[in-house]
Amino acid sequence: MFIHNKRLQYTVRVAQPNPGLANLLLEQFGGPQGELAAASRYFTQALAEDDPGRKDLLMDIATEELSHLEIVGSIIVMLNKGAKGRLAEGVEEEGELYRAINGAGNDSHITSILYGAGAPLTNSAGVPWSAAYVDTIGEPTADFRSNIAAEARAKIVYERLMNVTDDPGVKEALGFLMTREIAHQLSFEKALHAIQPNFPQGKLPGMPEFTN
Fold it and tell me: Residue 4 burial by CB count (10 A; 0-12/13-18/19+): exposed, middle or buried?
């Protein structure tokens, strides 16, 4: 089912190491609005979907989200390159080394020491990824609305990340990922509107005297 194309979906270029920014980007790697959460959400929805078109859509987007996970992880590792080398060599004074890998004032030093400056499945505060981020309920009219909102939240996080970097390569890559969130929203909206009626969700119409 899956074929791994060895090229990244988007070519990533990083101007210089930045462990602090790498740590912030973990939000889109192992955070609640991140790419793994999205891939898991759509993959599990696809497995339970009876409609062939919706199943195909969900599986396609889930697979693309995995490629986005690869892109984000690659950016994180590239931004951490300098920190990894400094830790391994141990040639700097302790205070200088700490300042070098913690320049942005966040917990990037913890990521560097615990995970070897890699890309752990945590958010930017070090909280491990959780399956609780997958909010599938098994009803397409509810799940597609949730998917649209999830893509909107991810777009906003990418916008905020773009605002905290002046690295042109990173900013461009984040812009690409942000734009794909828009494309996914449009796809989910079309899928939702193709289900008629799609409101209220579920089977029961509700009690007329209390619906307005």
Answer: exposed
Tokens standing for 52? Answer: 């062939």
Residues 6+ apart with CB under 8 A from 126: 107, 110, 111, 114
Q: Is 151 a catalytic residue?
A: yes
Q: What is the pLDDT of residues 53-100, one digit of tens each?
A: 999 999 999 999 999 999 999 999 988 886 544 444 444 454 455 555
Q: Model pTM?
A: 0.84
Q: Is 209 a catalytic residue?
A: no
Q: Which of the residues 27, 49, 65, 109 is marked catalytic?
A: 65
Asked if 181 is an active-site residue, the reply is yes
d(CA 80, CA 72): 12
The question of whether 96 is a catalytic residue gets the answer: no
- DSSP SS3 for 74: helix
Report CA torsion sign: 33, 126, 13, 16. positive
> What's CA 17's distance to the chain center, in Å?
21
Return d(Cα 61, Cα 182) in angstroms, integer: 12
